[in-house]
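User: I'm new to structure prediction. If I give you an amino acid sequence, what do you actually give back? Let's try with this one:
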Amino acid sequence: MSLNLPYMISDSTNITEINITTVCSLNQTQYQCKCEGLFVWPNDTCHSYDACDDITNGSCTCINALPVDGQLCQVFPADYMIDIDVRFFDLLLVDYLRNITRNISLPLTLSNSINITDIDMTTVCGLNGTEYECKCEEYHVWPSDTCRAYHECDAIVGGTCGCIQALPSEGPLCQRDINECKDAVSVCGQYSDCINTIGSHICSCWSGFNTSNKDSPVSRNNSCQDINECLVSPSVCGPDSNCTNKIGSYNCSCLDGFTASNSSLPISINNMCRDIDECQFSPSVCGPDSNCTNEIGSYNCSCLDGFTATNSNLTISINNTCRE
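Assistant: Good question. You get back a string of structure tokens that encode the predicted 3D arrangement of the chain. For your 324 residues, that looks like this:
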């Protein structure tokens, strides 16, 4: 650690880097090999030998063995993003480059330790008359600061734009649009749909739900709540009915003595409850030697002349018939 680098061994040989990667020692009855600093054991080694710490992201830092193949700990895997500026005199070559990048199978292995995991065309700039235009490729947008700093040549959506009339002197190029809808509940709240748009997103409530503040857009802080249709519109089921609220919906039922006008359709303001004429529906409802008189929502039984109820303390019915 105290050696000054590069260290000259001869006129033609310099030591530019020295790393201690692996330290192995006897731990009672078996060897343990531990990785130093930012080094790790590859995934295969962790599984081939007994790992003596947690396997994280497919690698570990300690194994209970001396690897027989002589392999030592490896540099911790890292991701790098590289911007490449490609210049053409003919814009037709841009389409050619698009096709090449789209047809490359990824990941693309360059060496044992380097893979290309993503290739992304972000920005295409060209001369439009007397000034340059820099347009974002599909699913990409300019950062909002860039849109404000230069004159945009399309609409600003969600604080971003897709085209500026300039060659930016500094700052990032077009960036991949963020799909806020990947975690829709955390963005829009419960009982909602999320639609991603370039540079923004749209939240909408499910049917049967609405926001507390109808003047503000749907969001996690103005989330969708169940609509109690029975309170909002008491006549939603029509007369002579009961309305029961449900999450995201409601249910209609007729009062006793009533039935739906069309029994094959749900009860609603368009299929209201109507009175049941029990005297026609069930002629024997009052029993023999009696008269049945229909009433709204009910009926009334009376004995024929010369007859009386079996039990005068009870209402005349099939269970308390008329007798002489």
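You can read the tokens as a compact description of the fold. Here is one thing that stands out. The first strand starts at residue 7 and ends at 10.
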